[in-house]
């Protein structure tokens, strides 16, 4: 991490995460080969200017997201790239017929002990 800002080095060290510096062409080759992919692609967070090699390697791969927006100190803003908002709902009837079991489960889920209060 020779050419990385000292603030970034400190943050990486304090977070106890593995980090290494690679040349732009090596990193781009690994992205093109899918070496950083999880089960559905990859999300790459760029901390500085985006190199043309990375753009060329990721362009033909729509499952690779290259996030090159300026880094912020707001976790809520940064996490929007990684967390998917979901809603969970429960239907209290089946084919229009009220179900006692569903209503009992809904009442149980509304109790403070179940909600973690």
Description of the molecule:
The chain is an alpha+beta fold and 117 residues long. The chain has two domains: 6-79, no CATH class; 87-117, no CATH class. 40% of the residues lie in helices and 10% in strands. The chain contains six helices and four strands, in the order ααβαβαββαα. The chain has a two-stranded parallel ribbon. The chain has a two-stranded antiparallel sheet with strand order 3-4. Helix 2 packs parallel to helix 3. The longest helix is centred in the C-terminal third of the chain and has 11 residues, at 100-110. The chain is elongated.
Annotation keywords:
2 domains, 117 residues, single chain, 6 helices, two-stranded parallel ribbon, elongated, alpha+beta
Structural class by helix and strand composition: alpha+beta
Overall geometry comes to elongated
Number of helices: 6
Low-confidence stretches: none
Q: How many runs of DSSP E, i.e. beta strands?
A: 4
Distance between the amino and carboxyl termini? 45 Å
Total domains: 2
* Helix and strand sequence: HHEHEHEEHH
**What does the main sheet amount to?**
2 strands, parallel
Summarize the entry for a quick read.
With 117 residues, the protein is α+β, with helices and mostly antiparallel strands.
């Amino acid at each position: 991490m020779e050419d990385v800002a000292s603030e970034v080095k400190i943050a990486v060290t304090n977070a106890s995460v593995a980090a290494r510096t690679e040349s732009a062409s090596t990193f781009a080759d690994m992205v093109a080969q899918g070496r950083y992919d999880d089960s559905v692609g990859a999300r790459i967070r760029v901390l500085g200017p985006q190199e043309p090699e990375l753009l060329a390697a990721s362009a033909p791969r729509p499952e690779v997201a290259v996030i090159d927006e300026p880094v912020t100190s707001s976790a809520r803003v940064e996490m929007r790239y990684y967390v998917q908002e979901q809603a969970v709902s429960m239907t209290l009837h089946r084919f229009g017929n009220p179900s006692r079991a569903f209503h009992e489960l809904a009442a149980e889920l509304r109790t403070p002990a179940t909600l973690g209060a």
